[in-house]
Amino acid sequence: MYRKFMFATGIENSVPVVGQAKRRVDELEKCGHYKYWQKDFDLVKELGIQFLRYGPPIYKTFLGPGKYDWTFADLTFEYLKKQEILPITDLCHFGVPDWIGDFQNPDFPELFAQYAGDFAKRFHWIQLYTPVNEMYITALFSSYYGWWNEQLTTDYSFVTALKHIVKANVLAMKAIINVRPDAIFIQSESSEYYHAENPKAIKPAELMNARRFLSLDLNYGKRIDSEMYEYLMDNGMTRKEYHFFLNNHLKRHCIMGNDYYITNEHRVSANGSTRAAGEIFGYHVITSQYYERYKLPVMHTETNLKQGPNGDEAINWLWKEWANVLRVRNDGVPIVGFTWYSLTDQVDWDSALREDNNNVNPLGLFDLDRNIRPVGKAYKQLIKDWREVLPTHSDCLKVPIQVPSNNKETKEDNAKKDEDNENKTDTKTLLQASKNTI
């Protein structure tokens, strides 16, 4: 059992297609990871971080049904294994290979499940997965805002993308469990809230606040309310498709990942338009809403803020988010980890990746020359200060994570170990909280 708090970072691997020319955006390339991947992993180790949100570029790896190029994945994941850095493996981050097309393709779920299962067979030592990153945002940006991939803007296209994306996630979980029965899935999902700015905006805000839960409701097999059921049925989901989600019970394998940025809260006008509200409720209040709905262990899976002219803006945000994490824990919510996302600065996220301006966004623990930023130093110190304190002074969970040995083991040996473990893991029962509070 892993009894320490899971401090993490991530390496940005978004790969959406944008613009009329269907230009592929590859953040691994823009941020220099293909060149500096070994250095990047060494930096993770240098910070004292053991968990890394990371995945191979799906469009370069998944070449066709049953066809793969594992070259880069073999190099990178073998190095992670030797370093005993545990990947939370991110298999689909905002885009699909060209040959699949986009998220309107009804064949995507089954194709992706095959990819996930074959990945798990090849990298049998990996236990932690985020099959599809931010399912709600992927559908929203691709098929409702019209920014990425299929670039559509209707409720029907949104529901179509959403049901395909969540089904792909569910089928991928099942495929991975068939290979690795003790797999744990950390759903990195954006935790949103919509504020009505006047009485006439209450109704559209209520609809948006109901819609924000759809991806996780479907993923966890939760019966949704009548208004959202009608919304799904009116926009192309069938009763059979809805019951597919109700009948798949994989929640016990899951930790709910909640992403929170200063852009996650929105002001809603009477006509349904939205704009950024800034931090109003904050991570503590919104995550508590999600926890009350799903009653799952929680991990803060993404946050960041730009380093501004004073040099301490990101540091102050780090401490604010950490204070929210502690508040969540003190309220009795079983929270197992925290993530600053990402390891290095990102590029062109100021335009949501839609424009190729090569604008460096100073959001990382390190800049793109791999020099540590002030927030990187602060995060390293935070980890050092809190890593040993939390397990003995707070509601702490024992997470059933196995740390791989540096010794190479055959897949057959690993498979035998899984059989001896009775092929069952229930994260809800195996994650055991102590009774102490800070």
From TrEMBL:
GO terms for molecular function: hydrolase activity, hydrolyzing O-glycosyl compounds. Residues 428-438 have a biased composition (Polar residues). Residues 408-427 have a biased composition (Basic and acidic residues). It comes from the Bacteria. GO terms for biological process: carbohydrate metabolic process. Residues 400-438 are annotated as: Disordered. This is Beta-glucosidase/6-phospho-beta-glucosidase/beta-galactosidase. It comes from Flavisolibacter ginsengisoli DSM 18119.
